[in-house]
Fold:
Amino acid sequence: MSKVAIVTDSTANLSEDAIASNGITSIPLQLIWGEDTYRDGLDITPLEFYTRLKSAKVMPTSSQPSPAAFHSVYTDLLDQGFDILSIHISAKLSGTLDSAIQAKNMIGSDRIALVDSKSTSMALGFLTLLAARAAKDGASFAECRQFAEKAVDHTGVYFVVSTLEFLRRGGRIGGAAAFLGTALNLKPILMLHGGRVEPKEKVRTMSKALDRVADILVEKVGDQKPLHLSVLHANAPIEAEQLLKKAQDRLPNGIIQESVVTPVSPVIGTHTGPGTVGFAYLAGM
Structure:
């Protein structure tokens, strides 16, 4: 029976325990801050990132992993006898998948398969975990790939930002540019759709925005189960716990298989800005 290795990137927001216990390899994106470069989630934690961001005079930027980083990981896994399923942040949000493609082409092996999650954060994380758990249960390389590709259409990400400035400045604003110029007292609800950030609607206060985001979750998930749910936040743990409680109160009993409150990685936080809160899910698989 062939061995299948699952590779993802740091924007998946997977914990060290989830990575280790499921045999996942995570390749970090880079955070560039002035003269310093950090490996996302390794050299700088979310808490350290947001603490520094409060008083920063120079704003950070992000960078994808190099093709060489993927080449090193891929060749090592291939040498160990693994087939490789590499699942990554949306190609419309980052050049990470392009680096993976370049590495695969350099190696020239058909034992590497690449999947565009068309998402990020724990939507990517849950998708990666699904494939990794299938591999542990003995699924073939082709089966793991089919699971991952099918799961792409079972994920969703909806979130509220305090300001659109970080998305605008980082060039990740996509269709949400339609909300630029929104009055300060209006909170934009955004979503990932087709791999891009798109506008959903505007709500007057953060409290109402959290209620509306919880309602959207129920609308999107319906009675699909199992539901893998993550509430995401960028230095907004209180609002995140409130959103999780609102979601739990609205969803049918027994539908949630696993739930977690997750701070988004520094690289994602660079583009969403502090105060962002929302959810990511994988439903029906």
Summary: The chain is about 40% helix and 25% strand. The chain has two domains: 3-34+43-47+61-152, 154-283. The radius of gyration is 18 Å.
